[in-house]
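Regression report. Comparing outputs from two consecutive submissions.

Submission 1:
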Amino acid sequence: MDSKLTPAMKQYLDIKKKHQEEILFFRMGDFYEMFFEDARTASKILDIALTSRQNDIPMCGIPFHAAESYIARLIKAGKRVAICEQLEALPSSGPVVRRDVVRIVTPGTVVEANLLPSDENNFLASIIIDTESIGLAFVDISTGDFYLSTIEKSMELFRGEIVKFNPREAVLYEGDSPDGAAYAEYIRMRDIPAYRINEWLYDRDFMTGVICETFGISGTKGLGITADLDIMTAGAILQYLKDTHKKAFGHLKYPRKILSTDAMALDDATISNLELIRNLSDGSKSRTLFSVLDYTRTAMGKRSLERNILQPLLDMSKIEKRLDIVMYFHEYHELAGQVHGYLKDIHDIERLISRFVVGRTFPRNFIALMNSIEAAMKIKRTLSGQPHDQTRELAESLPNLSSLGERISSTLEEEPALSPEHGRVIREGFNAELDRIYDLKANAKNWIIAYQEDEKKQLGLASLRIRYNKILGYFIEVSKGQAGGVPESYFRKQTLVSSERFTTEKLQNFESEILSASEKIIRIENEEIEKLLGSVLNAKNGLQAAAEAIGNIDFFISLSFAGIENRFVRPSFNLDGIIHVKEGRHPVVEKYYAKEAFIPNDISLDNDENIIKIITGPNMSGKSTYIRMAAVIQLLAQIGSFVPAKEANLAIVDRIFTRIGASDNIARGESTFLVEMNETANILNNATEKSLIIMDEIGRGTSTYDGLSIAWAVAEYILRYLKTKTLFATHYHELTQLGGKRGIVNYNVLVKEHLSGVDFLHKVVRGAADKSYGIHVANLAGIPRPIIGRAEQILQRMEKGRRSIKSANPDEEDAAEQLEIFNAANHLVIQAIKTIEVDTLTPIQALNELNRLKKLIE
């Protein structure tokens, strides 16, 4: 090490050796300093000046009180930040104060408010790819949420879990799994930073010890964690948190095991295709099922709503219990409105707890907690006063935290300063010694005047004055002529030409108190804040229970408001495998896209004659909306929501599968057709008789013969082997021939023809469609008129059964080659013209389709 380096710089380098992957924030007084490559990197990201110090060491710095905003920018840039603090005010040994890293900030371990999405969890994931299963753990350190899950080794299920929890960071262990790289690649593709802890730590005994130490228990059996995979995933995530947070994180809730028997597993295709949380256009939450249902007023409520949408229930009794609560708030809407009003005053209690645990004891956090408790207690009193089991149970789930709220209220000022260093924090009357010192500071001038007048009067010294300067402090000044009249209790401090300066024990004591008053105030106020923090942490379990209860109440009231606002009805359930919906509507399309009144449609599926519905009809007529509607209504019912229909009687389904649309997945090297076949294979391998499948086009990514053959075979397989209730929208008119089989029924979307064109009526009725109206849709899409005219000409000749198509140019008619319309190439032409698929077709794509058609003809 360079002998010219300062002791502080040597200390920096020693600490930096242990944190090569992080940008090191090195505390020096009121700044965090960065040096060497860290400084170069950070200065560019943060747009701050890069300077240098002795030995031309690159450096930059930020004020410590503004660190959060700078850390946020570094985290967003994909960096990790190690916070190195001074551990003492003065050196206890050696030339520099002790310093060490107290925390490592990573995307999955942040607790700072401005680093967190306000209405979403910020999960860290632990992933273990085993030979036959995948172990998953998810922790949100900002809320204390902790979930465990074990799934079969399936890429589709794995993707579904990752989409559902949307982790910001992952601790990954592939072990000896031969296909572990594929799962790691998926994590990388989603831009989730993946880190690995030492492999030797993945030992059952070691990880058991980590879990027990974290929760202060003697064994994991009481937590319901006994399987090796659960212990490993839970232990790994806790070990990573220990490595990054460097201190206890006692606010973590006990891990909650997600069982496949409790909640429906949704794969990523279903979550994405149904636009449950995020839309397909810009990836935001607007114009989604979440946005239709979201009338929540709290962060806990929003997270609860998202969590419940992604985990539909499988137990009918639990669903009915939720529906009973929603029904109650639906019927007693005024009560729901009153509670809804209280909810707006509740802050994010879960994240407040996490900030207290890591020592972020700003007075404003206590005030936010106090206001939240007051509002929560109003809700508890309101619900407790209702004579119904549903509301009483909700009220009982809210612990009584009034004493904690009163403790905060009696301790802190109504509007405390940012910190004791910035002004008064502790309420007047709470601490007598603190009040005395504040009074002393406030009345110092009056005390001086009073003491001066008392001394003057008592000693008869008219020239006596009490003064102050920075060198002597406070002193009593008497003229030379009267200096002989001072008593022995006066101690001389200074002699001047015309006067003498003295002090007294009383004045010295006053001076000492005045000069140390600010320091004493800060010390006493910080001591009281620490005591208050202890009270909050002692009530941690009650606060977490209250946060969960508030989230649930907000969720239920949100569902009731959504039901009233959107004219939903309560669904009923049956054990006969029947899905019957009368006048169903798609809630998202109806709310955001319908220019006129939404046209409702019926759904009827069962395990006998109506297993599969094959739906044909024009593009843009509403086939896709219809089948999505069925899936959304089913999902809504199973989360305990009312549904958009006049009537709904449903079977409980164990899975909802979707095969809707497709596009090339360039990142994974998958063509449109391969994406389509992967999704189809997942459905066929995992669907059961109790599932619901919606399929919108099978085989469109390949040739007509191949696509038709695959679609036909898939429909037959579902009917013969799976008997899964299925809505099958297709552009292959030939599939309607399957309508003769028992269990398969043809339906189509009505169209009204007139001289100027056609009107799509969006009404689904029994029977097969006889036309696709693809050319009409191409015209609507803006295809140039000459191309439309030529396509109509070709179609007319084909529909008349002619075996040749003449050239579009009369001068070339004699030379035109006769085209055999029944060979394989021309069969493609027939199908393409009849069934141009433009649900998502742009004008350019339509031109490409017609260009392909033209090449086939030529």
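Submission 2:
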Amino acid sequence: MTSAGMLAPYRVLDLSDEAGQSCGKILADLGADVIKVEPPGGDPARRRPPFVDDEPGPDRGLYWLACNANKRSFEADLETEAGRALFRRLAATADVVVESFAPGRMTGWGLDFPRLAAINPGLVLVSISPFGQQGPHRDYRGPDIVTWAMSGLMSICGEPSGPPAQISDNAQSSFAAGGDAAVGALLALLQRRRSGRGQHVDVSIQESVIRSSFQVAASWDMERRNLPRAYRPSQTPMSWTWRCRDGYVVWLQAVGPYSSTRAAGFFAWLRDEGEGADLLALDWEAMVPWQEPPADWSAVVAATAAVFAKYTKAELYAAAMTYGFSLFPVDTAADTMANPQLEARDFWRDVPHPALDRAIRLPGPFARATRTPPRAPRPAPRLGEHTAEILAELPPAEDSAPVAQAAATEPPGVAMPLAGVKVLDLSWFMVGPMTTKVLADYGADVVHVESNVRIDGQRTSGPFRDGVRDPELCADYAQVRTSQRSIALDIAQPGGRDVVLRMADWADVVVNNFSGGAMERMGLGYEALRARNPAIIYLGCSGQGETGPHRHSRGGGGHYAALAGFNHLTGRPGDPPGYLSAYTDFIAPRFNVALLLAALDHRDRTGLGHSFDVSQYETSMHWLAPSLLDYSVNGRVAGRQGNRQAGAAPHGAYRCRDDRWCVIAVRDEAEWQAFRAAIGDPAWAGEQRFATHAARKSHEDALDVLVEAWTRERTPEAVMTTLQGAGVAAGVVQRGEDLLEHDPQLRHRGFWQPLDHPTIGRYHAPRHAFRLPDAPCALRRSRMIGEDTAEVLRDVLGLSEAEIADLAADGLLQ
């Protein structure tokens, strides 16, 4: 294991505010030299609460400490020509610049991409903004609540009796965009190895959050149905969240064929506990999925609730681990910091900070690796801590020259960044496919191994074209499995495993997301593959990792969202924890892709392969780090706050005409005055109780009622355009229909690509949240089960028609 990270040769200049700091953090964790370029007085993120001991200070902000570990700090005032000249000297030595200013700011400073490229032709500029660098909404203000609302995800969060809700940790949109920005930067660096030149990567935060949603747009595309709040992709009206003796758990009983088999562990536990006789007596397999339940369904729900109410979260979770069923606790920050799986994997790192009188407990590396793992965290830098050190590294101004680039191996524009990369995809459901989708869409040859014997659960999750349940009509699979090939192969049989081993000889990358230890039990673990292909890059992304007492846990993104703490933070105070769909299924892939791209770059330079053990649960900790630090440092357990935010009022979702919703965020006095003027300066807005921010927060309930009286008379689109035109952040709480049919920004950017499928017909697949001008993303439709089997066996393994026929006769190609 080497100490230098995979990205050690690269330098990144981080100009971003909170919208992009997780991008720099990921690149720094992977070994890049990330320099946080700060203005005099420091980055505004240093002043974002909460603080250590609730005492403000430039080195005491928990968001700052969480998102800027492993970086260096350099102070430069870009508002002055001297500061800009200094930055240009830095840029001449850099590989990547990350910025999140309002579109046009870099141009005003003379630091836009054409002028930076003139200094350093190999430079990659990554621009992160709420809605992208072009289009009718490019200048719209987009704090977290606005991009969350306009992504569609907010429309399904929250109780039906109240407003749509966001996660109360108000940085989720930024974490999503930061992850996508890191992936975009790495793709651009890989393409630079081919072309010798950099490019301008354009990241839309709105599109990033859309890529974190589940089924919202697809339900409209396939079934012309807008999903309701508290929607869950369930086969029955059974609840997802259940109260237990000391909190909540998530659990869902399936019905129909094989449901008793899938719930065998749960039923065994009930029998051993002498519980749930009414539940054990039901014929679950005779019930028809997705149809009206039996008339006595309320009795089923009551019987289930009565069982869970007798036990604690820990007791129920322990039973689930022992008996092998998918029940998980809705954990808080306190629960997470005491989690035995994280403890067993030595996940937390106590990091002393020179400006504090204590160590800060931070999330550890987001993956385990056989070599060059992500870095353990170093403390976030003090303001300007490394300015002198970095200046000493720079050549004199008159000698400044761009960083040396490898000679281009291909003419510009000839190939996508990952052309020639071969990927064996053994994953299913969501987290694995979301990983390999990026690779396939940007040029890799991804071969997905699936089977009719055990159909990929992603094909059965819905929604389906016109509501017809058929694995070849599933929108979820069609949207995510773009640009790949499909081979039907029964890997449960020894002959099927032999074919997989031969395909691994061909592959550069192997991806799976089975539970910990499953690949080894099939004889397909890393050591078995490395013995045949020493340069293989192997990524396993299981729920909780390959080691530890909970490595065999069975669950999906909806379960791990509860375990990580997201559900606990979603909704209004007093409501049950919110449901976030398969939220963590969209977190881990961003880390997975960054790992794989860094590993490919590292292998190009060294010839070395890699093995990564990624825990979906652990990657989620990085998106909740400020709340977790608040507990570990201040002893405060964050809870559900609805849509309220300490630094803004009004700040929430407001009912509009026709039972639709919009969000509004007023964050300072200038915006309050602009808001007053935009709504006609009603008499109530001039009352003393609303005269200051503190006063507005003290009377926030009354303020929300008055604001909603104004919004109720208008469409959400009218509210948004009126307020955004006045410089006030506002956005429509968009539904699937709005995303696909009405959003002019998404249409301008070509986010939805129409594709024609043999069984589905015309459908719309999302592109990625980043745009690479030298690598435009043109998706190809998803495949039917085994559609490419013969082609792959011929192309990859060189089999003859007779040999392929023999495999089919042996029952392997099904």
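Expected: both submissions complete independently.
Actual: both completed, but the second showed a warning that disappeared on reload.
Relevant detail on submission 2: The mean pLDDT is 94.
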